[in-house]
Every structure is written in C-alpha cells, then in structure tokens.
TrEMBL record:
The gene is fbp. The lineage of its organism: Bacteria, Pseudomonadati, Bacteroidota, Sphingobacteriia, Sphingobacteriales. InterPro entries: FBPase_C_dom, FBPase_class-1, FBPase_N, FBPtase, Fructose_bisphosphatase_AS. This is Fructose-1,6-bisphosphatase class 1. Its cofactor is Mg(2+). Substrate binds at residues 118-121, 210, 243, 273. It catalyses: beta-D-fructose 1,6-bisphosphate + H2O = beta-D-fructose 6-phosphate + phosphate. Its EC number is 3.1.3.11. It is found in: Cytoplasm. Mg(2+) 1 binds at residues 92, 115, 117. The keyword Protein biosynthesis does not apply. Mg(2+) 2 binds at residues 115, 118, 279.
Length: 356
C-alpha cells in the first residue's frame, strides 16, 4: 500500500518536534489508539451484540449510563493501565478521578481526561458517536498526583483529540502543532493519515444547535438564529441547520465544511450542558489549532478556570467569523450581569456559590 503513514509511524516521526521527548506521550497516544479500535469493533456490530441499551446505572451527571458508555470507559482505563504512561484518568463515567495503580503508572507524568462515549443518545439508533480525550502533564512532582493536577485550565493541555465512529472511523488529534486526522483501515487494523494539517474554514454556512430548547436560550442566541435564517444572498444566508446530537460528529462536520456548534446556557441548564474538562477544553484546543475559535459566549474556553471535575460550560465553537458574530450579539443582547461577573470572580476565589 503505497505511501500509507500509520498513526504509530506519524507519532514517532513527530516526536522529533519535542527535543526532550522520551516517548511517553507517544506511547500514551498509541494506547488511546488501541482502545479506540476495540470500542470501534463493538460499535460496528452493536446491533448483534448485547451492548445496546441502558446499563441500569446512573452516572454523577444523573444520566442513565448506556452499556457502551460503560464498555468504552473500561476499555480506555484498561488500555491506559497496561500502557503505564498515565497516573490518573478523569472520566465522564466515574464520579471521582481514578488512580491508575501499579509500580510504573503511579510515577507516570500524564493525566488523561476522557469522555469515553460521546453522543450516547445516538448509540441505539446507529448514528455517529465518538470519544473525546485530553492530556495534561502532572504539576506535582512527588508522591501521588492529586485533584489539583486534574483541574488544570485548558491552556495547559499537552494534547487533545477525538475519535468519530461514523461511516468510517477517524482519530483526530493535536499536540499543539496543528491538527491531523487518521482513518481506520479495517483491512490492516491501522489508523492511516488521511487528513493532514486540518484547517477549519474561517466562515461557514452551517449552524448546529438543539433548537428544541429555543424558548430557554439567551436573547443573544435567539438573535443569532434569526441572523442565520434571514434571506441575504450576499452572505449566503439563510444558513443550513444541521444537528446530529453527538458533539464530536457535529464539530467534525463543521471542521471540514465550516460552521458553528452552539450549546448555550438554558434556563434548565444555567451553566450549559457540556463538560469543561473532557468535552469543551479538548474540542476547543483542537478547533483553535485548526484556526477556529471557541468561547462560552464571552471568554475563551481554554482560559476558563477549572474548579471541578464535571463542571459544565456553555460553548460556541467553530469557524472564527461565525463565533465572533454570535459573541457580538451575546454581549449586546445577553451581557454578563454584574452579579454573574462577581459570582465567577468569587467562585474563582473559592467562595463556592458566589453571592446568595
Ligand atoms: O440532546 P441534547 O440536549 O441536544 O444534547 C446533545 C449533546 O449531549 C451529548 O450527547 C453529551 O455527551 P455524552 O453523550 O457524552 O453525555 C453531546 O454529545 C451532544 O452534543
Ligand atoms: Mg459527551
Ligand atoms: Mg459520554
């Protein structure tokens, strides 16, 4: 097979970009690649296996865990355990972070935050789902790593990526030097470089949001939807609405075609729905590395203070000019109130709950 570059070969090649690299991050990315293949195998034949439906358990988000959520979580944790390059896993499916025990792992310098199966509501209906991961270097040097090593701001990520289990399976990742995409070739069981140096178009004509929540949206978002839906051929409006309901799949599409994905605050989810540590921060790192933009409507996602493992955030992410447009409408029609600003500040100062 002429000119195929596998993920493993690419990772080794790129290791030279990091003069002091000892290969730990490379091996960690390899381990994530292996677990993704195992999850892919189950996703592909889910209808034939007893792996559809609910697992009968509830996670800390109050969501029914799907059997595939639990399976994927186990696969990633065990692959990271046997690889030995990760000391802590922070997962959507575990209330607390998980220490990866074992002689080697406990001194390992990397922390992995993961959404093992993204788009769970689409599992049983054969629609694209994904996995999202984020990698940090621990800050503490001695002894066991701690929660503080996990709760680092998104700007501290050393790598991030996602896997999309769709019509084909792809792994897309960044180590802060651009974004590259690899397609799984089942005939050789390898992820092969198919999308080098991915760039998201500055502009797009696709908006992606669950409009079913319209009545609960901030005024700024309502104004933006109106903006997207008016007739104006010069600006290629009305835009097209596309919403898969799997964050990975919606953002992957926009990465390739241009577009914006929005999950704002709603009256039922005043802090947004999606989780900062293992959904918003990794996707923001990837999209920024591809030339796009990611904010919470007001400030850069990657600079948001991370105060808890399952913290939620609003997210506006995608083509730069589209995100800038909605931000301008948010600051005009849904300006952050003084209390909200104070609240955030107090939260940062550790006064939980801000002003009562
Ligand atoms: O059904 P809603 O409220 O539109 O939410 C869909 C969003 O929720 C998610 O499914 C949440 O992720 P999980 O499936 O990992 O819990 C996102 O993938 C998706 O963008
Ligand atoms: Mg998710
Ligand atoms: Mg999930």
């Amino acid at each position: 097979m002429q000119g195929v570059l596998t993920l493993g070969q690419f990772i080794i090649e790129k290791q030279n970009d990091f003069p002091y690299a000892k290969g730990e991050l490379s091996r960690l990315l390899r381990d994530i690649g292996i677990a993704s293949k195992i999850v892919n195998r189950e996703v592909n034949k889910a209808g034939l296996m007893d792996i559809l439906g609910d697992a009968g358990t509830i996670n800390i988000q109050g969501e029914c865990q799907k059997k595939l959520d639990v399976f994927a979580n186990e696969q990633f944790i065990s692959a990271l355990k046997s690889g030995g390059e990760c000391c802590i896993v922070a997962s959507e499916e575990n209330d607390e972070f998980v220490y990866i025990d074992g002689e080697v792992s406990k001194n390992a310098k990397y922390i992995v935050a993961i959404d093992p199966l993204d788009g769970s509501s689409n599992i049983d209906v054969n629609v694209a789902v994904g996995t999202i991961f984020s990698i940090y270097r621990r800050k503490s040097v001695d002894g066991k790593a701690t929660l503080a090593d996990v709760l680092q701001n998104g700007t501290e990520q050393v790598a991030a990526g996602y896997v999309i289990y769709g019509s084909s399976t792809m792994l897309v990742y960044t180590t802060g030097k651009g974004v590259n995409g690899f397609t799984l070739d089942p005939s050789i069981g390898e992820f092969c470089l198919s999308h080098p140096k991915m760039k998201i178009p500055e502009d797009g004509t696709i908006y992606s949001i669950n409009e079913g929540n319209y009545v609960h949206f901030p005024e700024g978002v309502k104004k933006y939807l109106k903006y997207c839906q008016v007739e104006d051929t010069d600006t290629l409006r009305p835009y097209t609405s596309r919403y898969i309901g799997s964050m990975v799949a919606d953002i992957h599409r926009n990465m390739i075609k241009g577009g914006i994905f929005i999950y704002p605050t709603t009256s039922s989810a005043p802090n947004g729905k999606l989780r900062l540590v293992y959904e918003c921060n990794p996707m923001a790192f990837i999209i920024e590395q591809a030339g796009g933009r990611a904010t919470d409507g007001y400030s850069r996602i990657l600079e948001k203070d991370v105060t808890s493992l399952h913290q939620r955030s609003a997210i506006f992410i995608g083509s730069e000019n589209m995100v800038l447009k909605v931000e301008s409408l948010m600051s005009e029609y849904s300006p952050l109130l003084y209390e909200e600003k104070i609240d955030t500040k107090l939260e940062r100062l550790g006064v939980v709950g801000g002003i009562d």
